[in-house]
Amino acid sequence: MERDLTWRIESVPYNDERARAMRRELDADLGARYDGFHGDEPEERRRARARALATHAEQIVATLIALAGDTPAGHVIVRRLGDQWEIKRLVVVTAFRGLGIARGLMAAALDAARDDGARRVILQTGLQQPESIALYSSLGFTRIPVYEPYVETMPRSVCFARDL
């Protein structure tokens, strides 16, 4: 099957089934990347990490998906995290990588944060995601210390910020 090389970004509700499917795909990818990364840790710490990573609908500023035709190709969320804006859950489906979708989603996410009043955005990623680290660095993000809610459960996170 030939993939559609044209794509567009749409804003969708947080509970949009296409967006939910993209988040499940990201969870599967991250599960594979980080399998064994946290070692033999107590169940309570795993639950605490899941709580730290959870995104709740009431925090959402924007849920964006990239579509190639009618096929979901990428996804990102902008959420309020206390008094900050955080970019979460960026994913591009493997078949659609290399088309600039991640950059397009990031540009749209930054616009959404700016439109909501943000002067700065933050994000968290990890060492097992070198392509994400490279993308964020290339977009002008700079490393910052690990921030809450990740300090206790993911102290080896790689965190970034960018002024708008």
Automatic annotation (TrEMBL):
Keywords, in A-Z order:
Acyltransferase, Transferase
Q: Where is the N-acetyltransferase domain?
A: 21-164
Q: Which Gene3D superfamilies match?
A: 3.40.630.30
Q: Name one Pfam family in it.
A: Acetyltransf_1
Q: What is this protein called?
A: GNAT family N-acetyltransferase
The organism encoding this protein is: Microbacterium thalli
